UniProtKB/TrEMBL annotation:
The chain crosses the membrane at residues 16-36, 42-62, 83-103, 183-203, 223-248, 268-286. The gene is coIII. It comes from Halomonas halophila. Its EC number is 7.1.1.9. It is an enzyme of class 7 (translocase). This is cytochrome-c oxidase. Residues 2-287 form the Heme-copper oxidase subunit III family profile domain. Belongs to the cytochrome c oxidase subunit 3 family. It is found in: Cell membrane; Membrane. The lineage of its organism: Bacteria, Pseudomonadati, Pseudomonadota, Gammaproteobacteria, Oceanospirillales.
């Protein structure tokens, strides 16, 4: 690796295996949403496969990095790759937010006789548009009995994620200054906050199903609520796993003050997840 040359990674099986694992997880998730528990085994196998591929793929990249095979060109490639990955995640959640806004701004008013397609009100003349939609139109669809208050567990989780971004930023700045022990402690705090978020969201889901009648089958409100918060929760789980891996690497002295893109990439991802939650808290819970 001298002059103008740069390291070209060897052919890898991980992209293909990652695609297959993600495909299995998505097929299982779709089957679970449409047909119930029949899709659970495929989803779980797909999820475990994704985690396994992530672990082994990251292992190979870490080994290559620690072997001194990467240069500035590879660093730029990693940064561009991570940037495009986060952009794809932005588009992923934009589709969900777009669905939510479309239903609330257009579909429900049309069914209530308003707007350019108000003739749709002929389908269910007794329907009254409201959000959260507790009484969906049509027979056989039962809405939730009530909705979760945003000022209880959701607010706690908001404070936790905002706090986790702060602790992660402190850890990053400490690493850049060469204070490895300080970085490790603050990063451990970030991981702990991520785990707290996951546990609290699990409690929230239990409360929603057991006491509020808020399920995936509870009309459009239940469907959008669990799709948006559920996929975000999955991202928090993945982000927490990544931060745990970074914590192990920091503890082993893998990063230096000027060479720690693995840490930065994890931080980018975590901050993105935090920003998405702010949007969810605002438009799913509060308004």
């Amino acid at each position: 690796m001298s002059g103008g040359s740069y390291y070209v990674p060897a052919s890898s099986k991980w992209p293909v295996l990652a695609s297959l694992a993600l495909g299995a997880m998505m097929v299982g998730t779709g089957t679970l949403l449409v047909f119930g528990v029949a899709g659970m085994p495929v989803m779980v196998v797909g999820l475990l496969a994704v985690l396994g591929v992530m672990t082994l793929w990251f292992r190979d990249v870490i080994r290559e990095s620690r072997s001194g095979l990467y240069d500035a060109q590879m660093d730029r490639s990693f940064r561009w790759g991570m940037g495009w990955f986060i952009f794809s995640e932005v588009m992923f959640f934009a589709a969900f937010f777009g669905t939510l806004f479309y239903v609330r701004t257009f579909a429900l008013p049309w069914l209530d006789g308003e707007g350019a397609k108000g003739v749709a009100a002929l389908l269910w003349p007794d329907f009254t548009a409201s959000w959260p939609l507790l009484e969906p139109p049509g027979e056989g669809i039962e809405g939730p009995r009530a909705v979760l208050s945003p000022w209880q567990l959701p607010l706690v989780n908001t404070l936790i994620l905002v706090g986790s971004s702060i602790t992660l930023t402190v850890a990053h700045e400490a690493l850049k200054e060469g204070y490895r022990t300080t970085a490790r402690h603050w990063l451990a705090g970030t991981v702990l906050l991520g785990l707290c978020f996951i546990v609290i969201q699990g409690v929230e889901y239990y409360e929603a199903y057991a006491h509020y009648g808020l399920t995936l089958q509870a009309g459009i409100y239940g469907a959008t609520f669990f799709l948006m918060t559920g996929f975000h929760g999955l991202h928090v789980i993945i982000g927490t796993i990544i931060l745990i891996a970074i914590l192990v690497r920091v503890s082993r002295g893998h990063f230096s003050r000027d060479d720690h893109f693995g840490f930065e990439a994890a931080a980018w991802y975590w901050h993105f997840v935090d920003v998405v939650w702010i949007g969810l808290f605002t438009f799913v819970y509060v308004f």
